[in-house]
Amino acid sequence: MTKKSDAPSKRTRVKRLHERGRYDRETIYSILDATPVCHVSYVIDGRPAITPTLQWREGDRVYWHGSNASQMLRAAKDNDVCLAVTLLDGLVLARSALHHSVNFRSVLVFGRPEQVPDHEKEMRMRNFLDGLYPGRWESLRPIQAKELKATMVLSMPIDEASAKVRTGQPVDDEEDYALPIWAGVVPLAQTTQPPEADPRNLPDVEIPDHVRAIKPG
Q1: Where do runs of H (alpha helix) occur along 14-157?
Q2: pTM above 0.70, yes or no
Q3: Which of 3.20.20.70, 2.30.110.10, 1.20.1740.10, 3.40.50.720 is the CATH number of 18-172+182-212?
Q4: I need a labelling partner for 79 at 20 to 30 A (CA). Which of 35, 135, 187, 214 fits?
Q5: How do residues 97-116 score in pLDDT, each as one tens digit?
């Protein structure tokens, strides 16, 4: 996906098992929106590095944040990076060792992140938090100027990106289907559990509605 089109670039075109490649924005956005966890790869002191962090999407841009002292953020700003998101959906058991696989959805986004200007940082942080827990920002103490000053937010356009998706059963060699070996898929899913209160909560503080709205399952 290059320059807001669905055509893959040289970097994003899926070459191995190319039929699993997806370049439409609906697929790419749905994967980015499904989990905040991502990994950002970058170069520091001439060597490759990768850091796990949290991302969020607003329109056709992806954001992440951290401390101003973060080596990753300082190395990533205005330089080429790759942001990756992966969702593991199932274990695929085949009739031969090398045909075992996993069902997954993944996205790679390439680009040069820009630093969000100071006057936008609070809004972007609010969008991030309320995207995870709608309505929580208003219930918190106001963010302090020194906290914002110590925070860097990066933003990158989703102009050069691709998804890769695997679904379904194992694909074995045709002659192996006659073997008496169990094969199939063990589905995996991330689930939420009931909230656990901080033991230092004040006695009269109740679970807010925006936490109750996060249903276990």
Answers
A1: 25-34, 71-76, 118-132, 145-149
A2: yes
A3: 2.30.110.10
A4: 35
A5: 999 999 999 999 999 999 99
